[in-house]
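Reviewer comment 2.1 asked that we show a complete input and output for one of the modelled complexes. We chose the flavin-adenine dinucleotide case, as it is the one discussed in the main text.
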Amino acid sequence: MHIYDYIVIGSGLSGISVASKISQETKNILLIESESTQGGSNKPAAVKYQNNNFTSDNGLRFYPGSPLAEQALKNLENELGLKLIQSISDNNPETYDASGFKAFVGFGDNPPEFYNEISYFLNQKEITLTLPVYKIVELLKEKYQGETITKSFMTGFRFTDDVLTHVVVNGSKEYHAKNFIFAGTVRDLSVLLTDEALSPRAKTKLKKDTTWVGLCLDLLHEGHAVEKHNLFVLEGTTNDSIGPCVGRFMQPQVDVNLQISQWMAFIDLETSEETENIGEVLKKMKRQIKRAFPEMADAIKAERLFMTPALSSGELKLNSNGTVAKINNLWIASGQVNQFPNLLGSILQSQFVLSSLGFGGVSVTPGEERTEAIEISEELSL
Ligand SMILES: Cc1cc2nc3c(=O)[nH]c(=O)nc-3n(C[C@H](O)[C@H](O)[C@H](O)COP(=O)(O)OP(=O)(O)OC[C@H]3O[C@@H](n4cnc5c(N)ncnc54)[C@H](O)[C@@H]3O)c2cc1C
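Response of the prediction step:
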């Protein structure tokens, strides 16, 4: 029976960051990924329109600036040996109502239920990266020197005499290791861990009442209909009960008379399980976009839709070194356990786990898609 030094579960930004660093010390490491390709939420998304091919990050992106974010990105820059922070600039989001566009100053006394998911888009400072995040993931993948198995869903942790010894993959195959790093969907731990390892009470807390997923709509426009590239918060009307959606127009691709805009709305996980509910939210989102930008409706040539994985989970108590209570060889690297439920959280959490495992002197402390392309369609009529 082979025993790995480390098994890393999940090959998103968090998992691949941890795996690539550890593999510089030991190649006796296994990376387990449930999908057919690595990258998780940060896979490249391709658009083909007539003779034009574009690749971009899938869905709307905004990276809030803060000293913590800068420090975490600088650690990643050192790891990769290249510059990642292009600039840090002011973010001046705008909103739209009957009187036209105006500066967005907040939700006042009436924040949407998914405020935690949307609030980081409203940060005063924005970091622009030199590379799309999917490219950062690809660079980390190139650095990784251990074994990888894909299409391999880790379906359970197994213990021998109260010690975590192996994981089960696709319901039957067993993989043994001395240390385990989980960088998958945190909510799933309520099923993956036995009641002895995580009490039923802790599991209930982890599942939480409402878990949000992001519905990301990317639009391809002919011409450069909107010159502004700041963030827009499009508030719902009384008929649009989905609440605000956020989005922006991307800088046009060089010399091509096409522009991409990316939008995001939120829907709770349970509601998202019915396809018709997703269709309903999408329709309302398009109505919000059309109301604010009627002139671009005719210019839209293609759309693509992504669902994020569960963006939030409930509370999971970890030990001060990032291990799960009672299991001293299981670390959680997923951004979802970090106080920032976004890209920063994934970078911080993976750096924190690495430092607590003794890999690299990381000076930040943790403060906190699977993306599935469910549709790529041709013509869009708003
Ligand atoms: C469309 C979209 C837009 C976003 N926009 C922004 C933004 O603007 N700003 C920002 O800061 N953040 C944004 N984020 C969030 C950010 O990208 C993610 O929080 C972060 O990159 C997640 O990385 P991760 O490695 O923690 O998780 P993930 O990328 O979700 O990776 C988890 C991986 O684990 C795998 N996995 C899960 N469970 C198992 C299992 N049991 N067995 C095996 N494999 C498993 C999954 O298949 C996946 O590959 C966005 C995310 C998406 C999807």
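The first helix runs from residue 13 to 22. We note this here for comparison with the apo prediction described in Section 3.2.
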